Amino acid sequence: MSLWKIAYSQDNSTQVLETELSHKPEMAEAAELVLKSVLKKGELGEKKVNDVPDDHPEPTIARLEKHGIVITGITQD
Predict the structure, then answer these.
(1) Which of 28, 38, 51, 74 has its CA 20 to 30 A from that of 17?
(2) Residues 2-13: b if buried by 16+ CB within 10 A, e if exposed
(3) Are 69 and 4 in contact (CB under 8 A)?
(4) Which neighbouring-strand residues pair with 15?
């Protein structure tokens, strides 16, 4: 397992999520990990996260972007 750092921008600041995976996460997988982390921390407050249709080509990425969260990098530590 390798330690991966997923950097993302939220509210004009950069956050880093660290996760152990055996592979480099693809963007959609990284978005899912970030979304779960943000929801767990309560960083979206009462905002709706299911406000993007599931048939969207990249629904998790779209959900993040709708709430001002953008993944800015994925690096191996």
Answers:
(1) 51
(2) eebebbbebeee
(3) no
(4) 8
* pLDDT tens per residue, range 13-53: 999 999 999 999 999 999 999 998 988 887 766 556 666 66
Q: 41 near 33, Cβ under 8 Å?
A: no
Round to the nearest angstrom and report the end-to-end CA distance of the chain: 11
Predicted TM-score (pTM) of this structure: 0.82
Length, in residues, of the chain: 77
Q: What is the dihedral of CA 76, 20, 12, 45, to 10 degrees?
A: 170
Q: How far apart are CA 52 and CA 67, in angstroms?
A: 11
